[in-house]
Amino acid sequence: MTIPHSLARAARNAVDTSTMLREIPRNTTKQKAQLRRYEVSSLLSNGEVSQTRHIAPALPMFEDAFCAFTRGSLVETENGPIAIEDLLPGDTVLTENGTSETVVWKGSVTLIPGREDSRGRTRPLTRIMADTFGMQKPMSGVTVGPAARLLGTPAHLRHLYGGSPVLTPAHEFQDGMGVIEMLPPTPIELFHICLKRHSVIKVDGLQFESYHPGVNAVRMISHSLRSIYLNLFEHVESLNDFGPLQLPRAGDGEVDAITA
Predict the structure, then answer these.
(1) Which parts of the sequence belong to the Hedgehog/Intein (Hint) domain (predicted)?
(2) Which of 52, 61, 162, 192 qualifies as a cystine partner to 68, CB 3.0-4.6 A?
């Protein structure tokens, strides 16, 4: 019996990932590399949806692919708002310019934001109160993860980016009133989606970006870890396959890179 391509690739990826995880160097304190379980749904070339589980490092570049939106976040589609957990690859979402883009990938991970990892780091959430950025922006209070980026520039960064809006990490808007930090001590499920091309989508009345690893991704990750990372994405073979950023990002030198 012929094994379907998607299952064959999943089995191959599991073997490859297991081998490469054993090759990840330990740090000088001999702490084990912390691993995390990631859930992935991918749109296959034949139109079917593949659902897989992956064990991969709990490193920022990996977690950022999953840690944008909390359960219940409403994504604007042609058929009205849909909760992020109910959105599937193959569905279309509305972008900020009014066009529709197909979801090709959705990832989720469960973590405890208030728990420190092996390096003493936490992964705070950001709570945005209703009407903080104007009427129905957001429509009601919304909580987003550490990887969420809003289209806009907070006051303390305007001297760097001028009047042009950029994609800014949501935590940069924290002011202790309308936008606050949250560190819940209980598990939280977080999601992110990848479209056919990098876009700005509307979630709970605010403009957020779809997932993209960024223009500096090649320099941020070793060759062995890059292979593990790419195994998470059925629709790409290399980092270049994510395409260009549609708008500049604040931080990490990405504004200079995209406008050079």
Answers:
(1) 67-214
(2) 192
